[in-house]
Amino acid sequence: MPVVSASQGAVQVLLGKLGNILATKYALLSGVRGEIQELKDELESMTACLHDLADDDDHNEQTRTWMKQVREVAFDVEDCMDRFRRHLSEHHGDRQGLLEYLYRMFNKLRTLRVRHKVATGIQGLKSRAQKVSDRRLRYTLNDSAGRSSKALDSYSHLENLSHWLPEISGDGSGLVGMHGRTDEVVRLLKEPRQAAAGPRVLSIVGFGGLGKTTLATTVYNTPKLGSIQCRAFVPVSQTYDIRSLLESVLKQLPLLADEDRNYDPLLNMKGWNTRELVDKIKQHLEGKRYLIVLDDVWQAAAWDQLKVAIPHDNNNEGSIVITTRSHEVAKNCCTSSNDRIYEMKRLEEDDSHQLFFKTVFESGECPTDLLKVSKAILARCNGLPLAIVSIGRMLARRQNKTSAEWQTVCDRLGSELETNPTLEGMRRILALSYNDLPYHLKACFLYLCAFPEDFDIRRGSLIRRWAAEGLIIGMYGRSLEEIAQIYLDEFVSRSIVIPGQIGCTGKIRSCKVHDIMLEVIIAKSVKENFISFLGSSQYNTAGHDKVRRLSIHPGGGKEKRTFSSKNIVHTRSLSILGSTEKPVPIKFADLTLLRVLDLEGCGWLRDQDVKDICKLPLLRYLSLRNTAISQLPNAIGKLKELVTLDVRETSIGEFPKGITQLQNLSHLLVGRYQYYTRTRSVKHLKGQGAKLPHGLGNMGALQRISHADISTEKSSRAMRELGKLCQLTRLCAINKGESKLWEPFAASLNELSNSLRHLSVVHNSTPTGQELEFLVGLSNPPLFLQSLHLMGRLSKLPTWVSSLNNLASLSLRENLHLAEESFEILAKLPSLVSLKLYSKGYVGSALCFEEGGFPRLKQLVVDNMDELEELSFRGGAANLERLTLAFMRVLSRGINGIGKENLPQLREVEFFSGVIDSIFCKVFEAAKEYKNRPKVTRDDRPTIEAAQASAQQVNDTAGARSSEQESTDQQVDRPADDEAAPAWRLLPSTCPLAYIL
C-alpha cells in the first residue's frame, strides 16, 4: 500500500536525523535530550509495525487512518528538528579561544526563546506519538482487522476478467488487432529448433491490460499450430501453489483410461505427493506435441518449479507459452537458444478506434458529433485494449450519449476509476502491478504522478528529486544515482513505465507513465495524502489538513483555489511545470519547509520570485530550467542545504559570488542543447554556458559542472580552483576566447585525474591554431574517463586516449581535423560503445571498420564529413545497433557492408539533416535483408511520390549501378518551411519496410 511505503519512508528519514541530533551538541538542549530519545524509540516501534503491514496488499480504513497519523507525526517532528537546526546554524561561527566562548554564551541567550519553543514542541510531539500508538491498541488493529474485505475477494473478482474483450473465435479473428499478433506468435513457435534443447519457451511480455492473456488464448485455440496432442491452460498469478499448478496441468491432459470406462485415473490424485504428480505429467507428455500456457507469471521461480515435470528428450516438439508483465521474468524463463520473447505493443490508432466504436455502438459506427471527444478519450487510453473496452462499456451503458457528457468523463477519468463499478476491474488489474512492488519502491513510483500527463520525465532530474525527497534507501558501496538507476530499471522491467530515450550505453534517459496507470497512482497519492494537486477538482482532498507535496499541472493556476495559504505552508515539495500564469495561493517566501522546488517551463517567473526563493533555508533541489530568468541574486548563497541547481535553457551567463557559499551543492547545471534527431543522438550546444566566480574551490561537494564558460580572465581564474574539487566527476568547459585561457584549466585537469568520469572540452570560436593542444601535454591525464567530448583544433589525438579502457562514449566535433591514424587508435578501445564523428572532426577520406575493430560499438554517428569518400563495414563494429547518418553529397566510393553479414545486430538507421535519396534507398533496401527488419527513419524525407520512385528505381537496378551512376542521382530538395514539414515523418505504408515516428 502507498500509505505503508510513504509512512515508513517518512519515519526512516526522520530516525536518521534524530540519531544525528542525539549524537551532536544540538541535543544538549536542557531537558529535551531524554524527550528526543523517547520519541525516537516510539517511532522505531512504529516503523517495525509499518514494515509488517507492508506484507499485505490492502488495509481497511481503520488501519489506513492509523498509518496516515504515523506519517503526519513523523513529518511534524522532522519539521521541528529542521527548524531547530536552522536557527542554530544561523548563529554559528568559526571563532576560536575567548572570542568563541563569549560568542557561544551570547548565542545561547539569543536562541533561548527558540530553544524553549523547540523543547515545548518536542514534548507535545512525543505525547502525540504515544497517543497514536495507544490508539492502535485501543482499536485492536491486528492483522485480521487490518485486512480489507476488498482485498480478500480481489482474486475471485479477477477470475472473471478474462472476458473483458468480445468473444474469442478459434483463431482470434473476432478480436480487433489480434489476428496479426496471433500469426506472429505462431510463426515463432513453429520456427526450426536445435536438437536436444527441450521444449520451446515463448514469453509474451507487456504492460497490464495490453491483452497478453487474450493473445495466449487465441494461440491456444488456433488450428494454425497444427496437430497438438496435449493442451493445458494454467493461470499462475502472484500467489501460486506449486501443487495446485501441477494438478491443474494434469487435469487438462488426455489421460489413458483403464478398460473400465467408469474408472477415473485421477480418482486418488489428492493422495499423490508432488513427485508422483510430476511423474504422471512427464509420462503423458513424453513423445507428444503439446502446448502449455502459463498465464500471468510474476516470478520466474514458478516456471523453474514446473519445468521439472516437462520432458526434455531429443525429439521433443512441445511448446510452453508464458505471459508476464516483467521483462526480467521473461528473460529468466527464456534461457535456451530455442526460446523466444514476444513483446506486446499498444494498439495502432485505427485499431483503437475500431475496438472503441465496436464496444460502444452496436453498429460499430460513431456519430459525427462524438468523433472529436472520442479521439480525446482514446488519447487517454493510449492504445491499451483493457482501457478502451472498459471505458467503452461504461459509455455504452449511459443513456445520453452527448459530446458534453463524454467530455466530462474524459476530464474526470481519475474519479471515475475510483467510483464507477464498470471500471473497477481495470483499476484492479493495473493496481496489481503497483501492489507487487517492494515497499521501498512504491513511494518512488507514486512520485511519478508529480509530473503532468505525457511529460517526458528525464532520468537525471527524477533521480535528483528522489534523493532530495529522501526516497532512496542507501546500499553499501553504491551511490544514490546508481541505486536510483536500479529503481528505474526495475519499473521498466515490470512494464509499469514506458521507456523514452535510451542512451548509447543502454541506460534509460527518459520515461513516461501510461495515462491510465497515471490516473491510478494519482488516485492513490491523493487518497493517502502523498501528493496533492492544485486545480484538479476531481480529486477529493477532504481530511487532508496539511499539504506535504503539491503538484500544479499546466492550467492548474487558472482553476478555483482548492487550498488555502494556511494549508500549503507545510509543503515540502512543489512542482509547477510548464505553467504560463502564477498560481494565486503560492507565495514562495511563506513556504519555509520546502525541500524540492521544480519550476521548469514557468513563463511567469521573475527576478523577484527568485529573491523570495532564496529565503527558503531547507531547499535541496531547485530547477529554474527553461524560464525567462537571466540572472541569479547574490542571495542564492543563503540556500545552504541546496544540492541541485538546474538553470539549463535559461539566459543566465554568469553566476554571482554568493554561489560559492553553497558547500552542499553537488550538481550545477547550465547551458542548452539543440537536438537534430528523434532519438537525440545528435545535439549541439547553444549559447556559451555561464561564467563561474572566484571561490569555486570552497564548493567541495560539487560532482557535476556543466557548462562552465572560461572565456574571460575572471572566469579563467576560477578554473585554477577546479583542482580542489576532489568529488568532481562531470565537467564541461567552453572557451570562445584565446587559447591561453585554457592554461589554468589544464593545470586543474591534472589534479582531477582520479575523479573525472565525464569530460567535455569545447573551443567555440573560429579556429586559428591548435586550441586544444594542451590536452596532448597533460602530465596526469584523466584515465578513468567514461565519456569524452572534444571540439577545437588538435594536431593529433593525445596518446593517453589509447589508455582509456573505460571510455564508453566519444564525440569528435567540428575543427578537430583528426587523421586516419587516429581512427586506428579508436578501433582498439575495448569499452567504446558510442562514437560520434562530426564535420571536420575527422578528415580522413575513408571510415573502414575492419574485422576485430570497435568490438563493443553500438552507436555510430557520421555527420557530413567533407573529406569522406567511403564508409565501409568489413567485419568490425559487429555489435552496432544504431547508425545515424547525414550526407549532403554522394560518396565517390560509396557506403558498403551494411547488411546482416557485417552488422548482424543492427536495429535502427536514422538519417538527419540533408540526405541524398540514393543513399537512403540503398540502406533502405539493405535493411530488408534482415530477419528482424531494422527501423529506418529520416527527418527530412522528400515527397511520398519521390520516395516511392527512388525506392522503385533501386529495386529495378539493384546491384547494376556503378558509383559514377549513383553520383548523378537527383537530390530532392527539402520542404522550404521546416515548421510545415516536421522531422521524422513516416513514409507511406506501401513501402516494404516498417517505419516509425
TrEMBL record:
This is Uncharacterized protein. Residues 570-912 form the Disease resistance R13L4/SHOC-2-like LRR domain. GO terms for biological process: defense response to bacterium; innate immune response-activating signaling pathway; plant-type hypersensitive response. One of its GO terms (molecular function) is ADP binding. Residues 451-521 form the Disease resistance protein winged helix domain. Residues 947-983 are annotated as: Disordered. CDD domains: RX-CC_like. It comes from Triticum aestivum. It comes from the Eukaryota. Belongs to the disease resistance NB-LRR family. Keywords: Coiled coil, Leucine-rich repeat, Nucleotide-binding, Plant defense, Repeat. Residues 196-363 form the NB-ARC domain. Residues 10-93 form the Disease resistance N-terminal domain. InterPro entries: Apaf_helical, Disease_R_plants, LRR_dom_sf, LRR_R13L4/SHOC2-like, NB-ARC, P-loop_NTPase, RX-like_CC, Rx_N. Residues 949-962 have a biased composition (Polar residues).
